[in-house]
Every structure is written in structure tokens, then in C-alpha cells.
Amino acid sequence: MAEINHFEYGWITPTLSYALSVLGSVIGLVCAGRIRTATGAGQRAWWGLLAAWSLGGTAIWAMHFMAMLGFAVEGTRIRYDVPLTAASTAIAVAAVGIGLAIVGTGRLSAVRLIAGGLFTGAGVAAMHYTGMAAMRLDGTLGYDRARVGLSVAIAVVAATVALWLSMTVRRGLAIAVSALVMGIAVNGMHFTGMSALSVHPHERRGELTGTEVGSLLVPIILAVVFGVVGLVYALLAAPTDDDRAGAAYLAARQDGAVPGAAGEPAPDPVGLRARSTLGQPGTPFPSRRDTGRR
């Protein structure tokens, strides 16, 4: 059995992977909050896409491969199959997106939350082991089933908590604390799954195919850039207090809670409505008797 080193560069890669998971979680929670305040299906879909990319693409996928930069196996180089690596990205983003759609459609309930957590957690685990299957090295991969099951359980619990937080957390401090907790959960799942891995070396069978792990820095950086842009956009698009007050007033008018609804005109104590009709076609000019002037 080959010797495995998960921290070839010391604590640099796990620290950066944790930072990525926290950053993606913050962005995802902020964007998920915009889903609740969206006024149309198009806006909800847009914010849902940004939240799915932030959580699935940055907090989970980019974190995974950042941690893999510090992964090494004695006696062999490691390369990654590009199509499988891309598939792992799609799995992570799609799993989070579908989970958000499950819990975000209609009223949040325990059934929706559990269903979304199970689906998303299974997707996160599938992303992890798809990324591991993308590795090309001079050896055969083996897994401890008990630890694999534990990693899947952690993924499901972490996904369920993440979906619940995405639908309930609103304030900045709560979002920050939640992101720190989510970062611990995501990294815990990753390194639990990695601890289940063993590599049985075999003789070199020729040149390894695929891309080197250093080449993954480019998509990782792009994931972070798009995530940060999404966060900035979400913050700029946040409704102000005036926007909320205006929306509440319009809703009250539609419900008939304020004058002006149900076809009844609002009070006009100073006669502004009458003055606004002067000069319009068909409107007679008021006489001195009408205006009270002498």
C-alpha cells in the first residue's frame, strides 16, 4: 500500500480550502436571501442560479480541488481526467440548485427540508467521489466502506443544515457565523472521505493522461471571481428601506387597506386633483363662483 500525504504543503491548502468554503457559503446565503425577496419567477431563477453556483461551485467544488492540491501519493504523479472533473462541477452545482428549488418552492416544511437535504447531500458526495475517480495515477484506489458511509452521512446533514440556513438566515452576523459552520461541515466531509482512501501501487503502465493538478488553479480562481462578482451584484441589488416601504404601500393599496383601492379615490383635502384637470380637453374652466374668488 502506497503512503498517502494529504498535506504536502502543510496547512496552506486546508486553510485555503476552508476559506473558499466559507466565502462560497457567504455568497450562497446572501443570494439565497434574495430568492425570498424576488418579485418574479425570472428573478427567483437568477438568484437561485447564483446561489447554486456559489455553494456548489465555490464552497464545495473549488474547496475540494484546493484541498487536492496538497494531496500526494508516494512513488507516482497524479493527473486528472478533464471530462470527469467537469462532470463533478456540474454535479455539485445541479445538486445544490435542485435542493434550493425543493425547499424554496412553497412553504418551508420538514418534508421539503429532509428531501432537499437528502438529494443535495447525495449530490455533494457524488461530486466528491467523481472528483476522486477523475484521478489518474500508478495505482488502484480502494475505499473503506464505513468511512465512505460516514462521509455521505456528513454530506447529507451538512446539506440539510445549509438549505435550512439559506431559507432562514437574513442578518449579516448570522450569515457570517453560519458560513463558518458550513465551512467546517464541508471540509469535515471532504477529509473524512479522503481518510477512507487507500492506494495500491502497480508498475508504471505508460504515460499518465489528463491534466496536472496545478492546472486546476485556473478554474478555481474563476469560480472565486464569479462568486465574488455575484456577491457584489447581490449586495448592490439589495432592496433599500424606501423600496420595502414602497412595496408595502402598494401591497396595502391592492388589499384595500389604504384609500385609493377598490375604485375609491384617495382624500384630496387641498384640491390638487381638481387643479390637475385644468387645461385638459373637455374640462370646463371654473368660474369665479366655483373657485370662490370675487
From TrEMBL:
<feature type="region of interest" description="Disordered">
    <location>
        <begin position="257"/>
        <end position="294"/>
    </location>
</feature>
<feature type="transmembrane region" description="Helical">
    <location>
        <begin position="47"/>
        <end position="72"/>
    </location>
</feature>
<feature type="transmembrane region" description="Helical">
    <location>
        <begin position="148"/>
        <end position="166"/>
    </location>
</feature>
<dbReference type="Pfam" id="PF03707">
    <property type="entry name" value="MHYT"/>
</dbReference>
<keyword id="KW-0472">Membrane</keyword>
<feature type="transmembrane region" description="Helical">
    <location>
        <begin position="213"/>
        <end position="236"/>
    </location>
</feature>
<protein>
    <submittedName>
        <fullName>Signal protein</fullName>
    </submittedName>
</protein>
<dbReference type="GO" id="GO:0016020">
    <property type="term" value="C:membrane"/>
</dbReference>
<keyword id="KW-1133">Transmembrane helix</keyword>
<feature type="transmembrane region" description="Helical">
    <location>
        <begin position="84"/>
        <end position="103"/>
    </location>
</feature>
<keyword id="KW-0812">Transmembrane</keyword>
<feature type="transmembrane region" description="Helical">
    <location>
        <begin position="16"/>
        <end position="35"/>
    </location>
</feature>
<feature type="transmembrane region" description="Helical">
    <location>
        <begin position="110"/>
        <end position="128"/>
    </location>
</feature>
<feature type="domain" description="MHYT">
    <location>
        <begin position="9"/>
        <end position="200"/>
    </location>
</feature>
<feature type="transmembrane region" description="Helical">
    <location>
        <begin position="173"/>
        <end position="193"/>
    </location>
</feature>
<feature type="compositionally biased region" description="Low complexity">
    <location>
        <begin position="257"/>
        <end position="271"/>
    </location>
</feature>
<dbReference type="InterPro" id="IPR005330">
    <property type="entry name" value="MHYT_dom"/>
</dbReference>
